[in-house]
Amino acid sequence: MSKLRVQPKGTAGRLVEVTPESAGWRHVGFALDRLAPGATSAAETGSREVCLVLVSGKARVSVDGKDFGEIGERMSPFDGAPAAVYVPAGSRYVVTATTPVELAVCSAPGAPGYAAKLIPPGTHGQIIRGKGSNTRLVTNIMPEDDGSANALLVVEVITPGGNTSSYPPHKHDQDNVPAESYLEETYYHRFNPPQGYGFQRVYNDARTLDEVVLLEDGVVVMVPEGYHPVATIHGYDNYYLNVMAGPKRIWKFHNEPAHEWLFTGIGGPAPVSSKKT
């Protein structure tokens, strides 16, 4: 089993937890709670900032006593836009499920000067990225240009069955802005129907890291460095929630040179002749 793959445990409560300590890095944290109606997830954020994402279901959310009311409008991550709440460092949040809920707790180092904020469904519209069998649907939750956080970047992606995403392969493991930024990353994967699966390769230029990870419903993949493309199989759509953070809240990536031609059309494989010799 890949050391980058985190398998969910149990069927209720906290199913997955990735911390900087368990991942062996400095910035990104991710947890997934499955709550029955009436169940609660609550915590102090301490020195970290948090984005609470309702992957599915509805819940009441409060931060430091401020009630944001019942939020959420989708019962599946494949059906509708996400609802989320940003929680700054030094705060306490309480999430109480009013329906069955999957709650993602995304975290990164915080800083003073940020306020709790509701991010309603539709705040950032869904966009189509790529073309052909590289088409996927992207919805930003906390993009780099929103000015609402110290470090957190959060986005969700739906990749139709048989398609690729996070492709052509790119990486963001060098603190070399504006050419490239250093960002750790987690992927939380879901499939529709849930028995589907896919694959994610995580590898660096030197191939000192080179792993192919089996993706199944509920699995988390950690990306500490390197390229990290995703491929789905026919008939099963793939959803993933990305959490990224690093020393700068900037997403600047570097494409793998061998596959750069997929953007430019220049330097690709020579056409295959059908003429018999």
What is the percentage of strand-forming residues?
over 45%
Q: H/E series, N to C?
A: EEHEEEEEEEEEEEEEEEEEEEEEEEH
Which structural class do you get from the secondary structure elements? mainly beta
Low-confidence stretches: 272-277
Mean pLDDT: 95
| Terminal Cα span | 48 Å
Shape: globular
- Report helical residue fraction: under 10%
Strand order of the largest sheet: 1-22-19-24-14-13-12
Biggest sheet descriptor: 7 strands, antiparallel
The radius of gyration over CA amounts to 19 Å
Number of strands: 25
- Described by its quaternary structure, the protein is single chain
Task: Count up the helices.
Answer: 2
Attribute tags:
277 residues, mainly beta, 7-stranded antiparallel beta sheet, 2 helices, 25 strands, 48% strand, globular, disordered C terminus
Please summarize what this structure is:
Helices cover 3% and strands 48% of the residues. It is built from two helices and 25 strands. It has helices spanning 20-23, 261-264, and strands at residues 5-6, 13-18, 29-35, 40-44, 48-56, 59-63, 66-71, 83-87, 92-97, 101-109, 117-119, 127-129, 136-142, 153-159, 164-165, 170-171, 173-176, 180-182, 184-192, 197-203, 210-216, 220-223, 230-232, 237-245, 254-255.
